[in-house]
C-alpha cells in the first residue's frame, strides 16, 4: 500500500494514531524501503508516547506530528481520563525533537522534523501559554506549531458545561497572541470565520460581535 501511494504521487506516508502497531509498522517499512520507498514517514500521534517506543523509531520516522493537548494533569484526567498527560508529553516531545530536529520544508513539502499541533479549548483549559512556553524553552524557538481552532463539543462534553461549546474567536486570537509573544511565529494559523462557517453555520451572524 505504501509503494502504491508513492507511485500515485503522495508526498508522505502518514501513520495516524500508530502506537499500537509500531512492531508491524517497522516490519512493513523495512519491506517497503527495500523496494525503493523514499517518501518521508510521518508519525501522527496524540503526544502521549513512551520513550521506549520512540527510541525504537529513531532513524525510522522522518516527521513527528504530535499533539500537545493539556498543560495540566488535572484537566487531562478530568476531560480525557489521562492522569499524567503533562508529565508524559514533555519528555516524549523532547525525544521526538532530539531525533528529527526542527521542521525542514523544501518546495512547500515537509521533508523532516517536528510539527506540533495544539487545539485551543474553551476557557483556556488546554493551558496554551504554558504549552508554548515549554515548546520554546525545552525544544526550540523555531519549532513549528499548528494552533487549531476546530474544537467541537461531542461525546460526553455535555456533562461539562465549561467545554460544552465551541471556542470564541477572541479565545483563539488570545492563544495566537501568546504564541507570537514568545516568538513562535513559524507555524500555521487557521481562519476562524472559515471554521465557524463550515462547522456551525448558524454562528456566522454572531462572529463579528464576538470578535
Give a topology summary.
Elements: H1 2-8, E1 13-16, H2 22-33, E2 41-45, H3 51-56, E3 63-66, H4 73-80, H5 85-100, E4 104-106, E5 109-119, H6 128-139, E6 144-148, H7 169-181, H8 192-199, H9 204-210
Parallel strand pairs: 1-2, 2-3, 3-5, 5-6
Antiparallel strand pairs: 4-5
Q: Largest beta sheet, briefly?
A: 6 strands, mixed
Number of strands: 6
Radius of gyration (Å): 18 Å
Structural class estimated from helices and strands = alpha/beta
Helix and strand sequence: HEHEHEHHEEHEHHH
Low-confidence stretches: 199-211
* Portion in strands: 15-25%
Task: Provide structural commentary.
The protein is 42% helix and 15% strand. α3 (51-56) links the parallel β2 and β3 (63-66). Strands 1, 2, 3, 4, 5 and 6 form a six-stranded mixed sheet that branches. With 211 residues, the protein is of the alpha/beta class. It has a single domain, classed as Alpha-Beta Horseshoe (pyruvate-formate lyase- activating enzyme), CATH 3.80.30.10.
What key attributes describe this structure?
15% strand; 211 residues; six-stranded mixed sheet; pyruvate-formate lyase- activating enzyme; alpha/beta; 9 helices; globular; disordered C terminus
